[in-house]
Design a protein that fits this description.
- With 161 residues, the chain is mainly alpha-helical.
- The chain is built from 6 helices and no strands.
- It is globular and about 60 Å long.
Length: 161
């Protein structure tokens, strides 16, 4: 039943929980956030010395140039400060996704806006990856992100009625 002041729209549903996919997105975002927080704490616990050893072991294992390339750059970049900065960035990412998951689960409009904006920001990178490396994996990433944007945008639009 529609409230008396609700616009007479054929698809109006006052209960945001009736939007399919919101709970699934909340679960995925919560898992991503939890894993990011786990990774951030792991970086802090492990610290720079073992990380640097692991990078050197990879360089030796794959017989790479220890002075040039991405792993060499990473090896030279690892320091206590860079590990703390990386852990802080990953933790912020995790907190953001956990907050989004909580908001989506609790049917908060701001969470739909946050998720829609976040997923939309990924789309150019997904499209670039699809163009550079066409295949089923990059195609699936684009399709999933488009579905997430569509579900969250639908929730935002439905809340306006």
């Amino acid at each position: 039943m529609q409230p008396a002041d609700a616009p007479q729209h054929p698809h109006y549903d006052p209960n945001p929980r009736h939007h399919p996919g919101l709970r699934a997105i909340a679960l995925v975002e919560g898992i991503k956030g939890f894993l990011a927080l786990l990774a951030a704490s792991g970086l802090e616990v492990i610290g720079p010395v073992p990380l640097k050893r692991w990078v050197h072991a990879l360089i030796e294992e794959f017989q790479l140039d220890p002075d040039h390339g991405a792993l060499a750059w990473l090896s030279h970049t690892i320091s206590p400060g860079s590990v703390h900065l990386a852990a802080a960035g990953v933790a912020a990412y995790g907190v953001l996704h956990v907050a989004e998951a909580w908001g989506l689960w609790r049917d908060k409009a701001w969470a739909s806006w946050l998720g829609c904006l976040g997923a939309t920001l990924y789309l150019p990178f997904d499209a670039y990856a699809l163009l550079r490396h066409p295949g089923w994996l990059s195609s699936i990433a684009v399709v999933i992100n488009l579905v997430v944007v569509a579900v969250l945008a639908r929730d935002i639009v439905r809340r306006r009625y």
